[in-house]
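Journal club side-thread
Mid-discussion, someone asked how the predicted structure for our own chain would compare to the paper's figures. Pasting it here so we can look after the session.
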Amino acid sequence: MASGPFTVAQLARIVGMSIGQVRRYQELGLLQAPRRRRGRSADVSFHAEHVQRLRFIKRALSVGYALEDIAKLVDPYSLGTCRDVYETTMRSMQRAMEHEPRRAKALAQLAEICPRVGSRGDCPIIASLTQEFD
């Protein structure tokens, strides 16, 4: 994967989103702020960590997490333990059960792999949402 710098349009194209979606995730605080380019006070750029974050968001949305739960998943200070991640997954699953049974099933499968012990860094749910897919 290229490391950047990328414009917002390039970033959106790389992850298969619209520029509007990228901007929305920035506004919601799900996507970290772009870096400022050296020597150019008004220019900002995106890098590999932005690509990774947007891919994580895209995967989390595809399995049924709500944006409010994704905000917790991407905030390293919000959910401190694997159990916290599991409980967030279960809440998302319960919300999805009525209107999105396929997504509820995907969330249930993620919950099944979770031992609910250890730190968030050890959580297989986070690992599953983070891994690269081709």
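Post-session note: Residues 64-134 form one domain.
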